[in-house]
Amino acid sequence: DQEAGELGLAAVPGRQAAFRQGLEAAVHYARAVGCPRIHVMAGRVPLGTDRAAVAGEMETTFIENLRYTADLLSQEDMIGLLEPINNRITDPRYYLNTPHQAAAILEKVGRPNLKLQLDLFHCQIMDGNLSRNLETYFPLIGHIQIAQVPGRHEPDSPGELNFPYIFELLESLGYTGYVGCEYAPKGDTLEGLEWLRSYWESRGLQHGGTSKAAK
């Protein structure tokens, strides 16, 4: 319930029943559209509480709900994804903030069908060190999202991140999944996707990522 200030429920104590109801609805929708991955949103630290004071209870709740999620998704051949969201700019109260925290929770849960959804925008803001973080957490990664920092626009907009380098690093690591463009276009959406055409051409590829030599 976004109007009530919620952003997921998986780590929110006392909301387990509502979380499970929402998860079942998400699975229903994902099955209908043939989507094999579901972002399991941790939720926010409850208003009026200190993050450090509730951290243990929230982690316990999160782990319990994630094990339930993994069991349910295994029946559907689906993957659950955990995305750290930065609490410096985007959401000060979001519970899950860094890939280190997510990796520690995934280890405690211990289920192979739960993975890390690594949004490089959030990762850069919280930790930087993207090359080493990608290499370190690559075995856990189930999805990648991108946006330039700090404006959260197209990858070729002015900013801190060298996306051609990052894309080549992902290729060298063997990443074969999708890269989600979770950014706010500076203008028209289609015009904003010209960065991808330019990137393909710089790699000697045509529209769709096919080799010109192959054609």
Q: Measure the end-to-end span.
A: 50 Å
Number of domains: 1
Q: Could you tell me the strand content as a percent range?
A: 5-15%
Global outline: globular
Largest sheet: 5 strands, parallel
CATH class category name: Alpha Beta
Could you explain the architecture of this structure?
The protein is an alpha/beta fold and 215 residues long. The chain has a single domain (15-203), classed as Alpha-Beta Barrel (TIM Barrel), CATH 3.20.20.150. Helices cover 43% and strands 10% of the residues. Strands 1-2-3-4-5 form a five-stranded parallel sheet. The model has no long low-confidence stretch (mean pLDDT 95).
Could you give a short description of this structure?
This protein is of the alpha/beta class.
Descriptive terms for the model:
215 residues; alpha/beta; TIM Barrel; five-stranded parallel beta sheet; isomerase; Xyl_isomerase-like_TIM-brl
Give the helix/strand layout:
Elements: H1 16-33, E1 37-39, H2 51-74, E2 79-82, H3 99-109, E3 114-119, H4 120-126, H5 130-137, E4 141-146, H6 163-173, E5 179-181, H7 189-192, H8 194-202
Parallel strand pairs: 1-2, 2-3, 3-4, 4-5
Helix pairs in contact: 1-2, 2-3, 5-6
